[in-house]
Amino acid sequence: xxxxxxxxxxxxxxxxxxxxxxxxxxxxxxxxxxxxxxxxxxxxxxxxxxxxxxxxxxxxxxxxxxxxxxxxxxxxxxxxxxxxxxxxxxxxxxxxxxxxxxxxxxxxxxxxxxxxxxxxxxxxxxxxxxxxxxxxxxx
Length: 139
Known about the structure:
- The protein has one domain (11-127).
- A two-stranded antiparallel sheet has the order 1-2.
- Strand 1 (32-34) and strand 2 (37-38) form a beta hairpin.
- The radius of gyration is 19 Å and the shape is elongated.
- The two termini are 34 Å apart.
- The protein is built from six helices and two strands; from the N terminus they run αββααααα.
- It has helices spanning 11-19, 59-81, 87-104, 106-120, 126-129, 135-138; strands spanning 32-34, 37-38.
- The protein is mostly helical and 139 residues long.
- It comes from Rubellicoccus peritrichatus.
- InterPro entries: DUF983 (IPR009325).
- The chain crosses the membrane at residues 56-81, 93-120.
- Keywords: Membrane, Transmembrane, Transmembrane helix.
- This is DUF983 domain-containing protein.
């Protein structure tokens, strides 16, 4: 549910909205065009979701690697070391599990990248900084 347009968006609101797949600016659902693609702008407030910086969303890859290592690779390595799985079965399961897990959590990873950016730079949200001087430049 969108909140009052006149109030600034707090970091807590940015976190809650982003982790639930909502626009960090207005709180409306609909950030995603499909499972693997963001809309170019929020359907409600029109905030641009595309970043001009090349590679802005490549952080999803790093998050995916870390999650795959913790959730898939380490447990499978332990099973192989304890001889509960053969090496080649472990390799096949690790590859398959890592790819499937990364695909499954991809929208969450995109939301995490958006959340991280706006938690660090909340004045970049249109509701927080579009009519105010840039806080980062005044410090």
